[in-house]
Design goal:
Keywords: Lipid biosynthesis, Lipid metabolism, Membrane, Phospholipid biosynthesis, Phospholipid metabolism, Transferase, Transmembrane, Transmembrane helix. This protein has 7 helices and no strands. By secondary structure, it is mainly alpha-helical.
Length: 202
């Protein structure tokens, strides 16, 4: 992940480098999206579980490496949320298609994406930079990315499935709530940026 936090005083330097280890991990995650979707629709659940789990691990590692070694880049800030959203979208559609999760959950999470997307013209109109990813947003993504492998694992009759089901839904509920909270915070961020820009111009 390439979360840069929100504290302006401690904001790390952001480069324009393309070929960094965190960016390579984000690119690998993007390559894994269609592979995962095919695996889950073809009901190759073990392989789908492995791909999804690996995406969660690389999602954690790219942010840690970027911050630890000063490899935060503009490209990484773009690729990371795209990969997150594509994994969440493909997982939602795949699991709903398999009747593992209800379609209303898909609607709730996609409505959040539409809410955030509706602010994009506002940001472009005022020529603002994309706000940095908020900690709450990363926590929401973390919960959702770990919820889906558990819910996939819960689709069975084994003891492991019985254990995975409550854990998966706990992550899903927390993730959904935090996802909407992050959207509200994003709106506040954008509103503040617009007000500060207007104050500077005035």
């Amino acid at each position: 992940m390439t979360d840069t936090g929100t504290g302006a005083a401690s904001e790390p330097a952001v480069s324009h480098r393309i070929w960094t280890v965190p960016n390579a991990l984000s690119m690998l995650r993007l390559v894994g999206v269609p592979i995962f979707l095919w695996l889950i629709l073809a009901e190759h659940d073990v392989a789908a579980f492995v791909v999804l789990a690996l995406s969660g691990v690389t999602d954690y590692l790219d942010g840690k490496i970027a911050r630890r070694y000063g490899l935060i880049s503009r490209l990484g800030q773009l690729l990371d949320p795209i990969a997150d959203r594509l994994y969440i979208l493909s997982t939602l559609l795949g699991l709903a298609w398999r009747d593992i999760i209800p379609w209303w959950l898909v609607v709730v999470l996609l409505a959040r994406e539409a809410f955030v997307g509706a602010m994009a013209p506002w940001v472009r109109h005022h020529r603002l930079a994309i706000p940095p990813v908020h900690f709450v947003g990363k926590a929401a993504t973390f919960n959702l990315i770990y919820a889906f492998p558990l819910l996939l694992l819960a689709d069975g009759d084994s003891v492991v499935a019985d254990i995975a089901q409550p854990l998966g839904w706990a992550f899903a509920w927390w993730g959904t709530g935090l996802y909407w909270l992050a959207a509200a915070l994003y709106a506040v961020q954008v509103r503040g940026m617009v007000q500060r820009k207007k104050a500077v111009i005035a």
